[in-house]
Design goal:
The chain is α/β, with parallel strands linked by helices. The chain has 19 helices and 16 strands. α10 packs parallel to α18 and α10 crosses α19.
């Protein structure tokens, strides 16, 4: 399942404060409440969510969840929801990327879920910290968690053996990574050491945050007026510059990293930083693979998680209550494990991670435990309204370094100018 994180139309959400509610209260003549769900999933994910919706409808006779709405994939959901809010006809629940939640939550139509989740059937403390952080905006819980992941490195064992390079182990460094990528690259056979998305979108950017955090940087400085990675960014971009100079990195020119993954699946890339969603495709391609934690500069493990959300919108009290009941049911461990196993994601709670069904699934999927264990050191991007502009500026810097157009210092200087200007805009 594609896990692109394209930031679409965030600025338009600031104009939604005058919208009316969407449609009727949703109560039929038989007293049953209909809830509209826009999930944006395709293929396996669509089948998995539909199966859960069908079960909920069977076991909750007073509510009917309609999962046929939306008409777009998750990548375009923000744009779709933005237009729906502006038109005054919007769903009860929508799948919203975590990086977009801060802007979506500016709409008064987003339901506050603080009480519902903090006092819900699943203990708040059972959610992984990245989950809690990703759905909290200014101290309020503004969405329910939908999907959880983390970042690690998947290695092609066959290419490592052929090149005589030992497989990396936990505790390796970014210098180890660049040296291994150089040794594993074989231009004559079209083999690359590693790959990186090169379109400048969020898929390009989010892979750099663990490197910056590891170096002591932050996305936003404590004063809130500037970026918090001006110095650390130069060093992290220097690692990408080394990969580009050695011609050991495949820079994917298309959104979503699809070509990068195809190169890996075809046996022409030795290492790919990715998440658990890619393991089903890797297994299906019969790649002999191993998963190792991300390298570091400091020796302290750190990774990134990009939780996505079920955001609930106010279409009247009856529909809102029914929508909240559904998302609370959906995030309970029994349902969560079924969804995670099908959608290529990780358990939302430590409780779900301990369930026998998840353990059996993890045992059948080599390397999945590495992604789950990484959640203990995972961080999330800040839920900040200026994040889309920061991401765009950093994405441009990354691409300019990967393509040899700018030095790390110059690229970061340009990034800081644009991102700092965005942070100075009152919100």
């Amino acid at each position: 399942m594609s896990r692109r994180r394209v930031l679409l139309g965030a600025a338009a959400l600031g104009a939604l404060s005058g919208c009316g509610t969407g449609g009727s209260d949703g109560v039929g003549a038989d007293g049953r409440v209909t809830v509209e769900l826009w999930h944006g999933q395709s293929d396996t994910g669509r089948k998995a969510i539909q199966a859960l919706v069908d079960e909920f409808n069977r076991t909750h006779p007073s509510i009917r969840v309609n999962a046929g709405g939306g008409g777009v994939l998750a990548d375009a959901m923000l744009q779709k929801v933005t237009a729906a809010l502006a038109a005054g006809s919007y769903p009860d629940i929508a799948y919203i990327f975590g990086s977009d939640l801060a802007n979506v939550a500016r709409s008064p139509r987003v339901v506050d879920l603080t009480k519902a989740l903090r006092e819900g059937p699943t203990p708040w403390s059972a959610y992984w910290k990245p989950v809690r952080d990703a759905i909290t905006v200014n101290g309020q819980v503004r969405a329910a968690p939908a999907l959880l992941d983390s970042l690690a490195v998947v290695c092609n064992r066959t290419l490592f053996r052929r090149a005589g390079v030992p497989l990396p182990e936990a505790g390796w460094t970014w210098d180890d990574f660049t040296e291994a990528a150089r040794r594993l690259t074989d231009p004559g056979k079209g083999v690359f050491g590693t790959g990186w998305p090169g379109t400048g979108d969020e898929d390009t950017v989010w892979r750099l945050w663990p490197m910056l955090w590891d170096l002591g940087g932050e996305v936003v400085a404590p004063d809130g007026a500037r970026i918090g990675f001006a110095d650390q960014g130069v060093k992290a971009l220097g690692t990408l510059e080394t990969l580009a100079r050695d011609r050991s990195v495949y820079v994917d020119p298309k959104p979503g990293g699809e070509q990068m993954y195809q190169v890996f699946l075809s046996g022409r890339m030795a290492m790919v930083p990715t998440g658990p969603w890619q393991l089903p495709d890797i297994s299906a391609a019969r790649v002999d693979y191993a998963v190792v934690p991300l390298p570091s500069y400091s020796g302290k493990p750190v990774t990134i998680s990009g939780p996505d959300t079920w955001t609930v919108f106010d279409n009247g009290s009856a529909r809102s209550r029914a929508a909240v009941e559904f998302v609370r049911w959906l995030t309970r461990p029994a349902q969560d494990v079924r969804w995670d196993s099908s959608a290529g994601s990780l358990p939302l709670t430590t409780t779900a991670a301990e369930r026998p069904e998840w353990r059996r699934h993890s045992d059948r999927t080599p390397g999945l435990d590495v992604f789950t264990d990484a959640l203990r050191t995972a961080r999330v991007r800040p839920v900040h309204a200026a994040y889309p502009q920061i991401s765009q500026a950093l994405g441009e810097a990354i691409v300019s370094v990967l393509l040899g157009q700018d030095s790390p210092a110059r690229a970061l200087h340009k990034c800081a100018e644009k991102a700092d200007a965005a942070l100075r805009i009152p919100r």
